Amino acid sequence: MKFKFIPSPKKFENKEKIILRDFLAMERTSLANERTLFSYIRASLYMAIGGVAILEYEGFATFSWLSYAVFVLSLILIFIGVFRYRRLKKKLDTYYRSMNIDSEK
Fold it and tell me: What is the per-residue pLDDT across 45-103, written as a single tens digit (0 to 9) for each?
């Protein structure tokens, strides 16, 4: 089963020597990947806080199921974020290794 919101990775091989512009573009991609992961984490935490607020507010006692649904969505969101981060990191590391570049700088 394929999900539309998680695009499938595409195979890419570079046959040319890497230049500074390409290296900097890969670094920007790596930093953007980290920023995206932090955005997923932030959104997940906001959803969890919203779930706690719904659960603790006495006027919404009949909507306690909603708070649990929000918690589940929060967990799903964080798992999607970590999955996408690790997949792109693995892809970048593979590319770095193929170009004999240390990716841990």
Answer: 999 999 999 999 888 888 889 999 999 999 999 999 999 999 999 988 888 777 766 65
Give every CB contact of residue 35 below 8 A, 6+ residues apart in sequence: none
Residue 1 lies in a domain: no
C-beta neighbour count of 104 within 10 angstroms: 5
- Distance separating alpha carbons of residues 65 and 24, to the nearest angstrom: 48
* Three-class SS state of 100: coil
Q: Is 87 a domain residue?
A: yes
d(CA 92, CA 4): 22
Number of domains in the chain: 1
As a whole number of angstroms, the distance between CA 1 and CA 100 comes to 35
